[in-house]
Amino acid sequence: MNRTSIGSTEIIVASDLDTFPATSDEICSAVFLESEAIKNYTQTMLKSCFENMMIKGCSLFVTIGDGSEKIHDFIDDIILDLSERDLLPSKSPVLTTFHATDEYDDAVSILFCNKNTLENEQMRILAVAGDKGNKFISAIKDFSAPKVF
Description:
Elements: E1 2-6, E2 9-14, E3 30-34, H1 35-38, H2 43-55, E4 60-64, H3 68-84, E5 95-99, H4 104-111, H5 117-120, E6 123-128, H6 133-144
Parallel strand pairs: 2-6, 3-4, 3-6, 4-5
Antiparallel strand pairs: 1-2
Helix pairs in contact: 2-3, 4-6
């Protein structure tokens, strides 16, 4: 597991969910999932992990890669189930998005689309990125770099 910070945003990059277990006490604002990195986990394992993150306050799940739409739909079902059982924190809705192509720039921009998180608000992002952790970090750095127009 690798940790880095960009501005006030802490980024945790894990190759798989075993290095960031479902029982972790860490609270993540957002989760970035590379579909290849979680393909060998059972639905029961994923459900337990994602439920735990949502109950603790994670409010955004971004999936990318082949199979990302299926993961996205699975997470949506978990959100509905937790909502029906009144187990989600009421402060904000849980949002999901998927990116079937390997366009990290688009997927990363979603993490910060509603606010200027990198500069104004502390955020912890968990990226379960398999062997693409460096690609994710590069996309975050590119997104946060000052833009010249």
